[in-house]
Every structure is written in C-alpha cells, then in structure tokens.
Amino acid sequence: MRILFITSTRIGDAVLSSGAISYLMDQFPNARLTIVCGAPAAPIFESIPELDRLIIVRKKPFHLHWVSIWLACFCTRWDQVYDLRGSLLCKFLFANRRIVGKYRDDSLHRVDELAKLLNVFPAPEPRLWLSDRVEAQAEKLMPEKIPVLAIGPTANWGAKQWPANRFAELVKRVIEPTGLLPGAHVAVLGAENERQMAAQLLEEIPIDRRIDLIGKPLQVAAACIRRSALYVGNDSGLMHIAAASQTPTLGLFGPSSEVRYGPRGKSVAVVRTLESFEDLVLSPDFNHLSADTLMSGLSVDAVYQALAKLYTSVKNGSERSVS
User: Fold this and answer.
1) Edge-first strand listing for the sheet containing 51-57
2) Axis-axis angle for helices 110-118, 18-27 (nearest 10)
C-alpha cells in the first residue's frame, strides 16, 4: 500500500498533523508513506520508519510549486491520498481514495479538526520520531541529574512574543532556592535567525546555568526538550514540539487562539493575556505585520501560577490538560 500525505509548510501545523500520520501507520502497518511538507517542517518527519519519500515544498511564483509536486507524484498509483492543504493536486493523481481538507472550523482545535476529517475518534495526539543519532547528540548537550527548564521565547511574528524581560523574571523565580525547580539549568531554544529575539533573555541567565540551544537542528532541539523538566514558551512550533514530546508544556497566548492552537499532550496548559483573542485581533489598531508585542496583558505572576499548577499536577501523577 502507498499513502500520500500532504501537510503544512509550518512547523506547528505539521506537528499537529503528526497524530494523523501515526494513526495511518497503525492502521496500515505495511504501507509505505510519502509526505509532502515545507522545508522548515521536514525534520519532524524524516525519522519515521515507514517513510518512503519526503517531498519538500519550495514555493515558486504563481503557485508553480504545485506543478513540481504533481510531477513528483503522478507516476505512482496511490492507494490513499490525504491533502490537508485542500489543493487541487490530488484530483489529478491516480488514487483509490482521496481525502481533502477543504474547510476550516475555528471552533475546533486543529487536532480535532483533522480527526473529524479522518473520521477518527478520539483524536490521535501529536507525536515525535527521533533517531538514536539525534538522541545521542542531545545527551551531550544536556546536563546529567540536573533539572532543566526549557524556554521558547521566540515566535513567527512579534505580536505573539511575551516580553523578554518577563521571561527573564520568570526564569529567576523558577530556579531560585524557593522556586519550582531550585538549582535548575535553563535551555533557551529558537532558530538561528531568531537569536536576536532571545538575546536579552540569554544575557540574564547566569552562564553556569545557561544552555544556549539557539540554532540547533530541529530534531536535536526536540530531543533536548524531551529531556527537560518543564517547557514554557510562546505559541510557536517549538511549543507544539514540546507538547508532542510529552514534556510538561505551558503555552503563552495573546493574539492567537488557544482554542484552535493550544498545546496538545498528556501534560499541557495554557495561560493567556487579560484580553481575549477576539479583543486583540478585532481591535482597529491590530496589525498582523507589526513587530510590537500584544502580550503585555500577561503578567509574570499569572505565568508562574499557571506553571506551578501544571507542575503540581504532573508530580501528583495527573496526565491531563490543565486550564
């Protein structure tokens, strides 16, 4: 059996689709899988044992990249095609079954929306596939027998970034002698082109406690997060990776919807600004392209309390989402 799975170019959306892929592999254990995704998201899938081929979407003017993808796929007779992008591509492929994600329902979490598309209940949760080589690299980067607080201070647009000085204050409170993780080290994560976003936080962390993971390959970053005691970060691909790794994860939300894109996993929680998502994005002053944060309505106290609630639930053995 051959399955073609077309997913997102963005890391976060690609991670959220990983549960659907896992479900298909469980249902069809002898199938060979071809995944189409964007270059940033490709590392998420490259270690899947059943992966036959990974086709990278490299965007071209006038949507000509879809022609390149069709040329890479049209010679194969597919048993099943899943197109989460809702493109016309699968209509022009030989396939016994086609499922196309055409409609968006903002009242549903993306994971639940995909489950509805596949007619699967309960929804298969996101997961990660990491190679032994990647695990070995992460082992060298992380300290032994010392808890690590992982921080994701970056985001794909400025309005979703909680202020760096508040991350620094949160870190100080978490790792101090009376904090949640006294004596912990702090791992700071992000892409290399996001280093400036994380620079102030890195400077505030004592050098003997700091683990600079900015620019590390995505799979290595994921393996390091998996070894961490807690993860706190903005709504981003790294937040979804943290949740999928089953590390207790707190997502910070403002001008994005936690209903639609909150972290999904066994031990996850969200905390948002005093303003609702609708209040922020429907404001006459809202500008998606602005670099200015819209996360100022989220205090350090609120984040610390949400993190403490999550950590307490984990220590008590409760594996569920915490509001």
Assistant:
1) 51-57, 32-38, 2-6, 80-83, 98-100
2) 30
**Cα atoms in the 13 Å half-sphere on the side-chain side of 77:** 1
Compute the average pLDDT of residues 289-303. 92
Domains and CATH numbers, the chain: 2-118 (3.40.50.2000), 137-315 (3.40.50.2000)
Q: Per residue in 123-172, pLDDT tens?
A: 999 999 999 999 999 999 999 999 999 999 999 999 999 999 999 999 99
β-pair partners for 213: 189
Residues 69-82 as b/e (b if ≥16 CB within 10 A, e otherwise) read: beeebeebebebbb
SS3 per residue for 125-181 = CCCCCCCHHHHHHHHHHCCCCCCEEEEECCCCCHHHCCCHHHHHHHHHHHHCCCCCC
The Cα–Cα gap between 299 and 100 comes to: 41
The H-assigned helical ranges of 36-160 are 65-73, 110-118, 132-141
Q: Are 150 and 189 in contact (CB under 8 A)?
A: yes
Question: Could you report the per-residue pLDDT of 73-122, keeping only the tens digit for each?
Answer: 999 999 999 999 988 888 899 999 999 998 889 999 999 999 999 999 99
Task: Describe the crossing of helices 300-315 and 164-175 by its angle, rounded to 10 degrees.
Answer: 40
Per DSSP, 115 falls in state H
Give the residue from 248, 198, 242, 243 showing the smallest Cα distance to 222: 242
